[in-house]
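From the shared-data thread, chain only:
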Amino acid sequence: MSRYIELPEHFIDQNTFDQIIKVFQKGGIAIYPTDSVYAIGCLSNHQEATRQLGLIKNQKIERAELSFIFANIKQLTDYIGIITNPQHKAIKRNSPGPITFIVEPKNKLPKPFHKRKTIGARIPNHPFLLELISKLDAPILTASLLDEDEIITYTTDPNEIYQIWDGDSRVDLFVNGGYGNNIPSTVVDLTQNPFQIMRQGQGQFR
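Structure, as tokens:
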């Protein structure tokens, strides 16, 4: 791991943001906090970075359990297919927050995801991430950072996470945002009628 950045409690200076943006734009892979658990991800339109992320997850990237995180509803709807009024209301009512929506993508989705019938998408309730994504030219492709421990599914202590990944050349940046949660996001399939909760996590779908 080549870079470590600790987020201040209230204010992130522009120089720090520029360093983080540069890592993503160059195709780097980062570990960062979200409004649920810590996650690992990269810029979704950088094919080599997405391939490397698939290798880290030990899954073929075309079928890997990954989600796209967006800065706002407008950006999200640019990437998903035609949505019904109930779908739009559900996304608006539950965003930003720890809810991942299963939705149908548009052709704008970058390769190798352009052939997928559905994707996971969410708008996290995390000021750092929302500001970061708004400054990037594509959404972030992300996955929850699972712990290899058989008992602990998600590590909440950022120092422990850093110790686990420090020295791993596949990860270019670690963003310490303080203690994370140990419950992942709730997953809701909006392609089904009625909508179906696929995983009950931290968020309460309304």
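The CA atoms of residues 24 and 143 lie 15 Å apart.
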